Structures are given as structure tokens and as C-alpha cells.
Hints:
The protein is an alpha/beta fold. The chain is about 45% helix and about 10% strand. It contains 37 helices and 27 strands. Strands 6-15-14-13-11-7-8-23 form an eight-stranded mixed β-sheet, with helices on both faces. The longest helix is centred in the C-terminal third of the chain and has 38 residues, at about 625-660. It is globular, with a radius of gyration of 30 Å. It starts with about 25 loop residues before the first helix and ends with a helix. Bound molecules: pyridoxal-5'-phosphate (PLP). The site of pyridoxal-5'-phosphate (PLP) has 11 residues, from α17.
Amino acid sequence: xxxxxxxxxxxxITKVPSxxxxxSATQLRMDRWSALRETTEALAREGTSGKNITRLRERAAALxxxxxxxxxxxxxxxxxxxxxxxxxxxxxxxxxxxxLVRRVARALASxxxxxxxxxxxxxxxxxxxLGDDTTLPSDKRSLxxxxxxxxxxxxxxxxxxxxxxxxxxxxxxxxxPFIYETVIVPSVEDVLVGILFNRDVQxxxxxxxxxxRSQNDVxxxxxxxxxxxxxxxxxxxxxxxxxxxxxxxxxxRPEIDAYxxxxxxxxxxxxxxxxxxxxxxxxxxxxxxxxxNILRGVNRRYRTPFFNALKEYSKQPTGVFHALPISRGxxxxxxxxxxxxxAFYGPNIFMAETSATSGGLDSLxxxxxxxxxxxxxxxxxxxxxxxxxxxxxxxTCNKIVVQAIVRPGDIVLLDRDCHKSHHYGMVLAxxxxxxMESYPLHEYSMYGAVPLKEIKRHLLRLKAxxxxxxxxxxxxxxxxxxxxxxxxxRVMEECLAIKPDLxxxxxxxxxxxxxxxxxxxxxxxxxxxxxxxxxLRAPEHAAAWEQQQKSxxxxxxxxxxxxxxxAPPHARVRVYATQSTHKTxxxxxxxxMIHVHDQDFRGEVEEAFHEAYMTHTSTSPNYQIIAxxxxxxxxxxxxxxDFVQRQIETAMAIRRAVATHPLISKxxxxxxxxxxxxxxxxxxxxxSYYDAEQGWQDFWRSWxxxxxxxxPTRITLLIGRTGWDGDTFKNKILMDRYGIQINKxxxxxxxxxxxIGTTRSSVAYLIEVLAEIARDLDTIHEEDSRMERRxxxxxxxxxxxxxxxxxxxxxxxxxxRPEPNLPAGDLRSAFxxxxxxxxxxxxxxxxxxxxxxxxxEEMVSAAxxxxxxxxxxxLVPGQIISAEIVRFMMALxxxxxxxxxxDLGLRIFTPDVLADKQ
Length: 918
Ligand SMILES: Cc1ncc(COP(=O)(O)O)c(C=O)c1O
């Protein structure tokens, strides 16, 4: 494999890396350090009289200047060590400078500074010159204790700064479970930049001397948050900056502990709103108390009650006199034939296999101990009022929520291309189903998401038909498989404006990670529920609602559809989210969670929820899965922000590489927001997050404003120009030739999903593979005969342009529509009617069938028919089979169609049974 295309094409030696070319500040920092390393090494090589000295010194000085604005937010190397390095440049100490800069750059890249002190004074250079810690003597830090940084905000002199730092350092004790270093910044704005830049920050200490504005360049603030976040503070007294800073921190990184130190008297403080700080201290100098609280705060997140209980349990000597012979590996260690299983998994997994619910463990079905506690911690981490663990995936979570909420005959509005678990959930619950259409992307054979107008139109029509009180739930997938993300808060508010007690189920199977970065968080169900609840309570909201009510008194449907509706203050916030933790965060397969923010849960749902949970949950849940959910929660509370940021960066690196690589871009294109979201849903006008000419576009603005946005971590690659269809490309090229695994394709696209485990090297490998494929294609086409060339062009034409249009949901047959004037269908009775063979018949899929349908013959599906891809039912039981659907099925070149047997044909209801049913 040749080429070795670099992910971020290095800038010329004279250019200082700037933010506009970098998606993230961390990458920018790393790039600036490696540029400084290259420059100082070149300087060292030049000696004292080389001809490039002046140019290199100028570049080094520019890099120092650029880095200084960033380095003030990090404890390592720390601003004073950094300034010492700068001084070495002034003093012409080029060799020492090169040595130390290399040490810093390597320690930053390897993370060695977290594990031990890195010597940065020239005299100590007897230490190895590498930042790698494998060969170095350990110091106090390397006792295996996790490391973090604490941001202290106070406008203090250098001397006071040294005092503060050393006072906290003096509090360190050998028994401390963690170790931290401090970073001191002067202002509210610096705190915000600090917690965005520095992902090691786990706590912020806000002292009374803080200022509002930063002296520093805070361009990054405009990227992540609106500057107006701090503009509002201008109205405040400086004494109010502290509590306000706590609130801002909670908005950006809610997992961080904020400590407020005040010089107000306890009496004064009693009446003040102190924001969301963890603790208030009155005495600025009580460093031991502060130190212990900081450690305790981090420990709150570090605790994993169920994982610990399981570890403890596995150490206890117990006689096993219940089921589960695998427990403690007993059935394996005594075996002659399955020893390899024991060798492969190692002993611990079997030591932790048990069916016990006592002895320090707990029962998932009736949790009272460590599982209950682990669920409570998960609720905190994911911003829910309560959280339930599930050990058999979101497929089960979805059925639990639907059964708990929906009663037979209740109307549920759901997106037709939702996961099959919802359709089965509707059958089990006996819901009256109204399918809503997502906007289609015909040219890529995929669906987008359901436009808000479509949802409102359904609700308004049901209202006009006098059926609104039967509407129980709106169910949507966020984000969709392909990465389309709703404006969750807006959808809920406008729906509540029409029906104030509506329940929402957001299928966030793919979106558990979204909570851990501020841009995405706004568009998660739990965050939106919280903001909406707060907003509905505000007096100005009530006034706005009353005003709108007057102006809309006689409004017609069109006006209501075109107006941004305001929910009444008495609306109830009733929101559920189901997440496949295992899909996007650390958890064993099948580990999922249900998050609840339902104001009426206790009064109305709790019992039913319990029953539903009992219905679907195994009495032998897998403890390893539960423990992994507990540990996965610890991880996101301590490093979710870091991991998700890195994931976004890697995805952006792929987007940029494909867009700018001359060879790759000849055959492949990464679909952009502009390709996957029609213009009317992109109010910001942003079409692409990366533009080869303009660099990074306003990703953050589109996430604030647009009806739909694209999750950039899911990368849809258009491959039609290669002449292969998605399925062939996935199996024959990516998998068989290069061992690259993906799981979704459409006719002319493949989907690459990045996750928090995706590494820069796997991305580099992918890019190399794409370049090699493109190169091979070039070579093949150079040698093509005229006929071969024509055949290839025809294939491309067919894949790129002749794509069969996606069919709309036709309708439920009147036999399954209890109210003929409503679109709602009784999926359940259609589903069970087909159990009797005599009610069904089969028809061959082909031109004959098409002709019969076009002549007006009526046929009704007796089964779910689910082609993979696209992976959602194009027919459900009771649905009228349209010519459009048959045409689509005939054009599909996939081999896997669930519910369709090529030897028999499509399963339909007989005309007699339909007539009887009507
Ligand atoms: C949107 C959606 N919901 C639910 C599920 C089911 O999740 P699980 O595999 O955790 O059962 C999937 C699986 O792919 C999905 O895509």
C-alpha cells in the first residue's frame, strides 16, 4: 500500500497552525507543539551560525506566541515552565530548548505527564530525553492514581498564584485516591475556555476575586457557546459572577464539580441563588477542607457500586448449590473438552458469573442495593429523573416503554422507518398506529427524519376529527441510523402546544454519547426535557403563551403549521429515552438504558412501568452487562467529554481527508448536511462542516438553529462512481480485501460509524485503503476497452441516477381501520389474523403482480416485510400493497428481505377474510 497520505496535510514551515484550519483546540495545540519541536530541533542542528537561524528563530517566536494563549489553561507544562522555555530561545540555548520542547511534546502525546512529573529545568537533563515513561524512575505520581486538573478562578498576582498552588499541593496525602494539579485563571470567560480546552479539568474553584472578561483571545468561545452567554453577566454585580459561573459550567460540562468560595457572611448567602455549585466555602484559606472536597467530588463519579459489589462477591468463597454450573468456572476447569474457553476468557469472568441476588449483590428486577445505586448514578450522569438498566438491548427497552405507556386503542404517532422493535411493540400494546413519513432521499435510497410540520399536521387532523384525547405518544428516532438529528426541544414544545399531556419516546439507540459534549447535548431528550420544564415555569413564558393564544384564536391549519407554537405553561413534560449504551459508549453488547423525565411518572406510570419491565426482563440478567453499564457510566462522567470530542475530531479528519484528497475525491464523496438535509430544514444555511476553500464551517451555529442537523460522526460515503453497489463494496471490497467492517449500506452509499474507541490510526488506515481503491480503479480504467468503459459508465449511471424512488406508506386497509376517517391502523389484529394459514395466500413478486395492482386489484400484506437495507418495514400487516412498493421491491438488489420468501412470494390476506373483517 503506497501513498501514505497525511491526515492533516502539514502546513509549510513558515505558517503557524491556526484555529480556522483546525476543528478542535486540542488538535491545534498538539500541532503547534509539534511544529515548535520541529523548529527547535532545526535550530539546534543549525548550531550558532547556520544560514537559517533568523528565519527559524522568528518562526519559533511566533509559535511561542501562538501557544501562550492556549497554555495558560493547562497545568502541564504550566505557564511558568513555558515562559522558561521561551527565555531559552531569547538566550540562544537552542540545544536545551530542543531537548525540553521535545520532552513536552512527547509527554503531551503519550499522556506521561499524568503519570509522573516531567522535569523541565535544563539541569535535570540526566533524565531520559523522552517523554515516554517506560524507562523512567517513578515519583509520587506514578502510584497508579488517576490524574486530573483543577481550575481555580481568581484575579491574583504571580506571587499569590504561587502561594495558592503550593498551599493546595501541601495538602496531598499518600492515601489520596487521585492526584491533581491546579491551573489558575482570572475571569469567567477564562473558566469557560479552560473547561472547553482542557479535558483533564474535573473541578473548578471559584474565588471571590474573579473578573468577567478575559485578556486572552477567546475565539473558541464563539465556536462552542454564544458570546451572549457571558454578555448577560454584564448586568450583574461582581458578587454575582460566582453563582453565574457555576450555572455556565453546568451548561457546558455538567459533570464538573464547581466549588464557590465567598467572602459574604453566612446570613447574606442564605438568601442568594448560588447556582449549581457543589459546595460553598466561607473561608478562603481552609485548604485541607477544599482538598478533601475536591477528591470526594471526583470520587462520587469514580464510584461504581455494582461493579465493586461484583468484584467483592467474586472473591468470596462460596459453595454453589444453585443453577449456573459455569459459576467460578467449575464446569470448565473439570472438563477435558472445553479448556480452551477458560483459557480464552481468563478466570475472572467466571468468578463473577453468579445467579445470586444476595451476598452484597442485588436483583435487577427489584433493585434495592448496588444496582439501584448504580441506576441512580446513571440517572445523574445522563440527566434523567430516573434510569433503568436493560440487559437485552434497546429492542427490549422500546417494548418496555411502549407497554408501560400505551393502552389498547391509544393512538401512537411514529416514524415509519423506525426500528422494528417499535412495530412489534405496537402489536403487543394493541396501539392504533399512525405512521408518519420521513422526508425521502431518493438519490441515496434512504430516509431523513420526520419534518415537524408533518407531525403537527397529523396532530391537528386528529384534533379536527375529535380524536386528540386518544393520542398518547409521539415516537421518533434521534439520531437516525444515518445521523439526522432533530431539534428535540422544539418538536416537543410545538406538539405540547397542540396536546399538552403528550408522552414522547425518543429512540436514542445511537445517541447515548451525545450528552457529553455541549453542542450535541441540547438535542438529547433528557437535556431538552429539563430545559423545557424550566422554560414552561417562567412567568414570561406564560405571558408569551397567552399572547399567542389570542393571536391564534381563529387560525386555520395552514397558519398553525407555519407558526412556531408555544406550549401552555400547564403542559406536562413527559419524556422517555432509550439508549443502546453498548452502541456508542463502553458497555458489553446488549447493555442499554431507559432514561425517564416524566412529571407524571409516580402518579400515573410507575406501576405499569414495573409490570412492563417484568414482562420483558429476563429473570437471569447478565451481571457482566450490568457491571459494564456501571463502569461505562463512570467513564462518561470522568472522560466522556474528552472521548466524544476526540471522536468528533477523528470523524472530521475523515471528512476533511476525503474532501481534499485528489484521488479519493474522484470516486468517493462524503455526504454533507447539504446533501442529506433539504434546504428548508437548514435555517442556518450551512451546507457542509468542512469546505476545501474555507476550512471549517459554522458547525455550532447550525446545531443551534436548524430543524435538522447531521451528526458528523456518522459518515455516509457515496460510492456510486466506483461502479459497485453498497452491498458489494461492503462485502467484497472492504471486508474481504481489507478487513474493514461496516454495518449499513444503501444502493450507492456505505456508512462508516466512528465511536469513542476509533483511533487516529484506524482512520489513517481507512484513508489509505480508499486511496488504494481509487488508485486501482484508475489503473483498471486506463486499460479499459471501449466496451468495458461503456459497461462501467452504464453501471455508474444506474447506481447514481436510476435509483428506484422510495415508496410512501400506502395506507392501512379499511378492515384494519376501526375509524374509517382516520389513518390509524390496528396493527395487532392484522398481525394475529395472519396466524391462521387459511386467512392468507401468497403472490409472486413480479410484473404480473404489478399489472394486477395497476388494474386496481386490492391486496393487503399479512406480514412485516423488511429489506436490509434500508432495514425498516416497507410493508406491515394490514397495509395495502401499492404498485409503488412492488416496483421498489423489484428494483431492490438486496438478498436479505425479512418476511418475504422468494419461493412463495408475498404473504397477503385472502379477499374473503378482508370482507369478513369489514
Ligand atoms: C434506531 C434503533 N433503535 C433500536 C435498536 C435496537 O437496539 P439494540 O440492538 O440495543 O437492541 C436499533 C438497532 O440497530 C436501532 O437502530
